[in-house]
Design a protein that fits this description.
Elements lengths: L18 H20 L4 H6 L3 H4 L3 H5 L5 H17 L4 H27 L11 H7 L4 H4 L9 H18 L5 H21 L2 H7 L4 H15 L4 H22 L13 H19 L9 H31 L4 H37 L2
Length: 364
């Protein structure tokens, strides 16, 4: 906690793991998967052999809202990064984040590249040069094609980590400093939006900042539910965040849109995401202390990485190759991607993450 002057004091005491947050992570990942498999067009249309709207005449409209699982992820990330960075030195914070992201990411890049290079697979693999750039996680700003379609969100996460590390972790986390960080980023992002300067957009991410900031505010609520400033941060973040979500995803004016998303539906999903994290922050789900929720949380990241592109391959094989019905194909594709995620967690993340964290923590 901070002292009366706002200077960082003792690190926050360790709290029990919020298992409900792990479960919410998987829900958000499944939302994104539903969107990729049955709520959009593009490459998945070739996998199904026709529009996913024809495969799921009713559900595809609901699946179209699944892309908002990304915004829910960002809110969760704001909460978790503030929680994990509080009272932690910069080197430890960096080591923890790098060790959490890189092993499964490297494995996913190599697996997808290898699968797409198989003669029986109709999707084209990237060149070795572009694949090597993808291993750095910097392909997005460098303008290199992506191996993983979902990795654009990791580029947003990395920029959030950098801002939080420089503004909060490096000088030392305190309530006052975190509040100033949230207020400063919110104001700077609004200025960047009005300035129309690409550099500011890259650094400050006006479209995604409200969700990260909202998650940070909810962590302050978790520490003190009577914190009026924290609730104000959450309220402002939701108001701005839903605006960006509606602006980028509402397609009612487009008669050729794949699936109709109403502005009310978008606001509702964003609101439910904030409310779900708020309920967890307030401790209402502390009794949901089931171990399987931790397993679900562990599977979320590798599942998120591999589900889209490898899902195309599985959908094509099951639906067009074996002639399985759409519903069975959808369910089996999800199950196969969860199984692959379990293997990645067990064979890649569990052995490599602690070793990488220890190695980075020892570096002077």
């Amino acid at each position: 906690m901070a002292d009366a002057t706002g200077r960082p004091g003792l690190p926050a005491p360790r709290v029990p793991r919020l298992r409900a947050l792990d479960g919410l992570r998987l829900v958000a990942a499944l939302m994104v998967a539903a969107y990729h498999y049955g709520g959009r067009g593009g490459e998945v249309t070739g996998a199904w052999g026709s529009s996913a709207g024809r495969q799921f005449p009713t559900l595809h409209t609901y699946f179209a809202y699944g892309c908002l699982g990304v915004q829910v992820f960002f809110v969760i990330s704001g909460f978790v990064i503030c929680m994990s960075g509080w009272g932690r030195p910069l080197k430890s914070f960096f080591a923890s984040r790098a060790a959490r992201l890189l092993p499964a990411y490297w494995a996913a890049v190599l697996i997808v590249t290898a699968v797409f290079a198989l003669p029986a697979v109709t999707y084209q693999a990237l060149s070795p040069s572009d694949t090597l750039v993808n291993l750095t996680m910097l392909q997005q700003p460098l303008g290199v094609d992506r191996v993983l379609g979902v990795c654009w969100t990791l580029w947003a996460e990395i920029r959030f980590y950098a801002l939080f590390a420089l503004c909060v972790v490096l000088p030392g986390a305190s309530r006052r400093r975190v509040i100033l960080f949230c207020a400063g980023w919110t104001l700077a992002a609004a200025i960047a939006q009005g300035a129309h300067m690409p550099l500011l957009d890259i650094v400050l991410m006006p479209e995604y900042a409200p969700f990260f900031v909202g998650g940070v505010g909810l962590y302050l609520v978790h520490r003190d539910r009577r914190d009026v400033y924290a609730w104000g941060i959450v309220a402002v973040s939701f108001a701005i965040g839903q605006h960006y979500a509606v602006r980028s995803l509402w397609n009612a004016a487009d008669p050729n849109a794949f699936a109709h998303r109403s502005s009310f539906g978008i606001v509702l999903v964003v609101a439910l995401g904030f409310v779900a994290v708020a309920v967890i922050a307030l401790g209402a789900l502390d009794r949901a202390d089931w171990r399987w929720l931790t397993v679900a949380g562990a599977l979320t990241y590798p599942f998120y990485l591999v589900h889209e592109h490898l899902g195309w391959v599985v959908i094509r094989a099951l639906h067009r190759g074996l002639g399985l019905p759409s519903a069975a194909t959808f369910a089996l594709t999800l199950a196969s991607m969860l199984l692959l995620a379990w293997l990645l967690n067990r064979c890649v993340e569990k052995p490599l993450t602690p070793r990488l964290r220890a190695a980075l923590s020892r570096v002077r």
